[in-house]
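Propose amino acids for all 604 sites.
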């Protein structure tokens, strides 16, 4: 099926822009590919080390067999609710491999931090850099050259992008991503948001806030709002690295286990040992990344992926730009209403038809490339189905729903919620930035007001508590970019700004930090680049300067006389508070070499 002209044009220009880098990447992975089990290329002592601790049957298979050996790269820990279910996955994977006459080993573990735990704390300044640490850890895990394919166990914000970057450095190996699923629905999201705002206003105490949060985040699985973690899952499916319909099945269920075992069988079937060789470096091509961006817009997904997708693509020799995101946004309608864009959570989305329905609508709307490689087969049309459990507990497949189960949550291509998903790129004399307006009231798409300048979110919170944030204003929170302090998410800003907006003030946020996909109802220009610590124009803003954030026209400007603006010296911040403590001193070199947000904020 053809795609719309804008989708085709954006894809073609990405291909042209990436031609040299992509060709070099493909040459590298082709040179690394081998026929037959990879362990045969190792010396005898090397092989002996690799299977010394295996069970006798596995050792015999590895010693003399021709079957593949599967690497398990896991981000398991039991502090992170989304990853706790992974505790039992390695044994399930090993047993499945044995039944298929193959072997599987945990190749390595990578860190998995919870942004919900570190939000507003010093540890959040390690969050974005943890993505690149995970990529490095994945490379270390796979460096033993004894594996024929890999399965990747990861879900949350930086973990999936890090695993993808690491996997692409071993792009000759097939790879399947195995999710664990979202927790069951708890306290409704609108009630959680209501209690948060009451706490910010001082109308309820910490006991009420903690009770509400505990009822929201109450068990194993991914948080159910549509932030970066669940956007990751959507991306892995629409880009062909999950099994169809696997993203949003709850943990510790028969269907979840059936999907996991089938994912293992699929990974074993697409190695170079057989006839269906499907290396991950070939799956993630330019068309797959365009499909991912379209999915991001159609679902109103996390703005973090304007950073992560760029970094992931670069690992495959592909150059994405924010202009690609902007042009695809202009033709991609919003088909989903998931919190923070409505009361519904991802469980409701899944029940309404989920990924199978969404992919069909986007394919039929000529917005996705159908002719792509996937781990499931040839073409994205294979993903227009959903899994179930048969009478014997076996995995069965049925056609995806043709009608939405709840049109208030999931819409068809002919009746979208909005013409676009609300993600826009802003340009102007303050640089470039990203904004997401899907949850912002139309009358707030343009804000012009004087600047209130802060150098961290704690300063703004303190000013709010002192009652100093009166009248209309644009909060400028700077020195929050990757070079300054690792670009932490700044969600502690949203409750006070939301309170002020509800009081009738016209407020907005401009920052070189991050706000993820759950930034909500306050207009926000985020990821401003160049950042303040890199000499960006945001460092020249002074208290009281008129700022114009125009999401309609895609402009971000300071309304200061041009000659005066050019003559200004940028503000300085020694960022001393971000240099030490909570491990931050270990990331000094990361801060020194990290690229800009628009380039993926990567250290590679």
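Proposal:
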């Amino acid at each position: 099926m053809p795609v719309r002209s804008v989708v085709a044009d954006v894809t073609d220009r990405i291909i042209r822009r990436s031609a040299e880098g992509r060709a070099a990447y493909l040459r590298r992975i082709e040179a690394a590919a081998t026929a037959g089990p990879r362990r045969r290329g190792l010396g005898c002592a090397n092989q002996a080390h690799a299977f010394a601790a295996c069970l006798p049957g596995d050792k015999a298979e590895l010693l003399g067999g021709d079957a593949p050996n599967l690497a398990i790269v896991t981000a398991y820990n039991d502090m992170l609710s989304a990853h706790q279910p992974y505790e039992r996955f390695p044994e399930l994977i090993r047993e499945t491999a044995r039944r298929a006459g193959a072997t599987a080993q945990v190749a390595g573990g990578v860190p998995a931090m919870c942004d919900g735990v570190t939000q507003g704390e010093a540890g959040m300044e390690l969050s974005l850099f943890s993505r690149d640490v995970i990529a490095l850890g994945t490379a270390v895990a796979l460096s033993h050259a004894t594996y024929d394919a890999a399965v990747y166990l990861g879900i949350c914000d930086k973990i999936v992008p890090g695993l993808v970057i690491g996997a692409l450095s071993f792009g000759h190996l097939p790879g399947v991503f195995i999710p664990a699923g979202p927790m069951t629905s708890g306290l409704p999201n609108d009630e959680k948001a209501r209690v948060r705002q009451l706490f910010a206003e001082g109308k309820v105490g910490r006991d009420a806030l903690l009770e509400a949060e505990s009822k929201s985040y109450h068990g194993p699985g991914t948080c159910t709002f549509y932030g970066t973690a669940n956007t990751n899952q959507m991306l892995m499916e629409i880009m062909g690295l999950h099994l169809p319909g696997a993203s949003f099945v709850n943990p510790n269920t028969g269907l979840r286990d059936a999907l996991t075992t089938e994912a293992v069988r699929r990974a074993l079937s697409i190695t170079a040992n057989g006839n269906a060789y499907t290396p991950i470096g070939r799956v993630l091509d330019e068309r797959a990344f365009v499909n991912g961006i379209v999915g991001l817009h159609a679902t109103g997904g996390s703005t973090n992926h304007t950073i992560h997708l760029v970094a992931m693509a670069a690992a495959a020799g592909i150059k994405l730009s924010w202009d690609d995101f902007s042009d695809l946004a202009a033709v991609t309608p919003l088909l989903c209403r998931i919190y923070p864009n409505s009361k519904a959570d991802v469980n409701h989305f899944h029940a309404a038809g989920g990924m199978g329905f969404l992919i069909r609508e986007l394919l039929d709307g000529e917005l996705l490339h159908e002719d792509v490689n996937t781990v499931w087969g040839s073409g994205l049309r294979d993903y227009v189905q959903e899994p179930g459990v048969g009478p014997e507990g076996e995995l069965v497949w049925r056609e995806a729903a043709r009608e939405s189960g709840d049109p208030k949550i999931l819409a068809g291509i002919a009746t979208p919620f909005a013409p676009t998903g609300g993600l826009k790129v802003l340009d102007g004399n303050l640089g470039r930035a990203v904004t997401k307006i899907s949850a912002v009231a139309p009358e707030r798409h343009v804000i012009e007001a004087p600047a209130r300048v802060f150098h961290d979110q704690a300063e703004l919170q303190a000013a709010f508590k002192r009652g100093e944030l009166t009248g209309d204003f644009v909060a400028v929170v700077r020195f929050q970019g990757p070079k300054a302090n690792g670009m932490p998410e700044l969600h502690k800003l949203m409750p006070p700004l939301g309170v002020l907006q509800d009081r009738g003030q016209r407020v907005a946020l401009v920052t070189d930090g991050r706000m993820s996909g759950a930034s909500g109802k306050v207009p926000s220009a985020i990821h401003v680049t160049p950042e303040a610590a890199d000499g960006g124009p945001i460092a020249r803003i002074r208290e009281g300067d008129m700022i114009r954030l125009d999401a309609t026209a895609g402009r971000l400007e300071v309304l200061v006389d041009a000659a005066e603006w050019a003559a200004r010296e940028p503000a300085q911040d020694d960022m001393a508070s971000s240099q030490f403590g909570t491990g931050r001193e270990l990331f000094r070199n990361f801060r020194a070499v990290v690229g800009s947000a628009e380039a993926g904020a990567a250290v590679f």
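The mean pLDDT is 94. The first helix runs from residue 5 to 32.
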